[in-house]
Amino acid sequence: MNLATIDILIIVFYIIITVLFGLYVSKKASKSLTSYFLGGNEIPWYYLGLSNASGMFDISGTMWAVTIMFVYGLKSAWLPWSWPVWNQVFVFVFLAAWLRRSNVMTGAQWITYRFGEGLGARLSHIIVTVFAVISTLGFIAYFFEGIGKFVVIFFPWDLSFHIGAFQVLSEQSYALIIIGITTLYTLKGGMYSVVATEVLQFLIMTVSCLVIGYIAFTSVTFAQVDAAVPANWKDLFFGMHLDLDWTGYIDSVNQKIDEDGFSLFGFFFMMMIFKGIFASLAGPVPSYDMQRVLSTKNPVDASKMSALTIVVLSVPRYLMIAGFAVLCLVYMGPELQGLGSGFDFETILPEAINRFVPIGVKGLLLAGLLAAFMGTFAAFINSAPAYLVNDIYKKYINPNAANKTYIRYSYLSSVFIVVVGLIGGFFASSINSLTLWLTFGLYGGYAAANVLKWIWWRFNSYGYFGGMLAGLIASTLLPKIFEDTSSIFLFPYVLLISFIGCALGVYLAKPDDMKVLKHFYRTTKPWGFWKPVISEIRKDDQAFVQNKTFKLDMLNCIIGIVWQMTFVLAPMYLIIKEYNSLYIVLAIMVITSVILKLTWYNKLADKESKVG
Q1: Tens digits of residue pLDDT in 461-475
Q2: For residue 307, which of 5, 23, 92, 281 is within the disulfide window of CB 3.0 to 4.6 Å?
Q3: From residue 422, how far is each of 59, 230, 377 by CA, in Å?
Q4: What's the rounded Cα separation, in Å, for the pair 324 and 349?
Q5: How far lies 257's CA from each of 67, 245, 366, in Å?
Q6: Which of 571, 495, 580, 609 lies closest to 321 in space, CA to CA?
Q7: In the chain, what is the straight-line distance between the N-terminal and C-terminal CA atoms, in Å?
Q8: Would you call 404 helix, strand, or coil by DSSP?
Q9: How large is the average pLDDT for residues 86-113?
């Protein structure tokens, strides 16, 4: 398909503006590492919230979300729990404040704050850096796979070529060009560039989402949707089996469901809950989400920023997701039935844009989706080099270098990470396979050690190192050993192996320095099993009060998950015109919002006043 001239001009104009803006703020970013990676802790929380939302609005994830709604209907609202999306609830309720109180630059630097400076702490410091880099490489491959599939449908030029016996496909060439442009402005501008461009990108994307939602809402009737989908497609709830048969509608979708491995939906859902609790309690992984938290001015702003992310991300995004899924079901269903098994369902999003979006709006939407991709990609390549430069080069190699030297090495680290990630992207099989590996495999190795670090005083640096190392090895090797088993079903084994690594480290080594533990608990003040540390603190400060908000925090997390789900479901029910369900969801949204206002928001400042 050839884009109209006006659409191409809109896209080119946007890319030029983005690059120039990134270069414009580069002088401010180059003052110091804190300015480069954290924006000098002076960026307002609402800008960081918009930036964080934009960073989560990537093309690969949106393509996946449109695909799963097309295939699974309203039950697709549960599938993003595999990340889990509701970890953001745990973050805004209590983890953002805990993390921000450390005043560090990276997740690896936080390890020193938690475990001290001994050998075990240094090993833990290094293993977190390794995890941060590996996870970033995985996401770069994930982005590479998604952006290539997306843009090749729209641009008419064949950019495929050969390097010896190795062929670079046209979609891979387009991905390389877009990634190269994004890397350029991110290198120069750091966090200032990332946040500034992501706020702009979010505004463009929101307008595009509203337009798509309007097109779908006015173009499709309730009866048309009802005729295009099988029984149970509109049902949010489920039993042990998916019970969704596409025979006679689009037969090849049944094959897609089998390939995804989601037929036993009830068991899959239990796995998501099991994994989600551990992953959410572990806190943000060392990537762009953690970087946004550490960039805020104070813990209260960190909490508000994380809550804002949920609100501004979910509604516009799911208007577009539901809109495209419904348009494709109604107007492309008979055609897809005739194609048999020859259609790649991961290309539903670009196919829908191709067919249903008018000229002019198409350029705006494509610019918005490219903006979403560029924003997410920029966030990752801004966060990972901080670990290599601040936590390896500065800490162990050259602690007294000039700021210009650190910034220069940040540029080199970014380029290195992007190149290695792209090499992995050339060998990725699909967006879905990468999604499952990232969410259930790799993050399974992260969860155990990073839950225990918050809640148990006896969990020492060797336990952290042992758990992270065991988890990384398990998440890397088990998918290769059990190639025919989905990563989701390997998660419990990865988690178990990681817990064994934690236990070995804890009981084969002494507890960490009490002085370090006292400083950590006094400044962070988490709940959990900290009685010996609290007793030591009270020897110096008899008035010290421990954190007793566990029950309230857990209640707010449960309410927050329901609250977040309403922002996902409301746009879906609106687009498919299930108004009775929509009214129920809106009522629940209002009730949960009022409860969170009383039990969480109103208590933020009071919580901070009691710390220390």
Answers
A1: 999 999 988 988 888
A2: 92
A3: 16, 39, 12
A4: 7
A5: 11, 10, 29
A6: 571
A7: 62
A8: helix
A9: 85
d(CA 14, CA 109): 36
* Residue spans per domain, the chain: 5-13+43-89+118-431, 443-510
Specify whether the CB–CB gap between 291 and 383 falls below 8 A: yes
Q: Rounded to whole angstroms, how far apart are CA atoms 284 and 288?
A: 9
Share above pLDDT 70 across residues of the chain, in percent, rounded to a whole number: 79
Residue 165 identity (one-letter amino acid): A
Cis bond leading into 84, ω under 30°?
Answer: yes
Residue type, 352: A
Q: Using one digit for the tens of pLDDT, what is the confidence trace for 16-61?
A: 777 776 666 655 555 555 555 555 677 788 888 887 777 667 666 7
Q: What torsion do the CA atoms of 162, 164, 165, 170 make, to the nearest 10 degrees? A: -10
How would you write 64-92 as a 3-class SS string?
HHHHHHHHHHHHHHCHHHHCCCCHHHHHH
What span, in angstroms and rounded, lies between the C-alpha atoms of 272 and 84? Answer: 7
Beta-bridge mates of residue 507: none
Mean pLDDT along residues 244-252: 86
Question: Quick one: which H or E segment has residue 596?
Answer: helix 579-599
Q: Which token pair is 135?
A: 């996870």
Span 575-585, pLDDT tens digits: 999 999 999 99
Q: 155, 439 in Cβ contact below 8 A? A: no
**What DSSP string describes 130-199?**
HHHHHHHHHHHHHHHHHHHHHHTTT------EEETTEEEPHHHHHHHHHHHHHHHHHHHHHHHHHHHHHH
Q: 162 forms bridges with which residues in the sheet?
A: 167
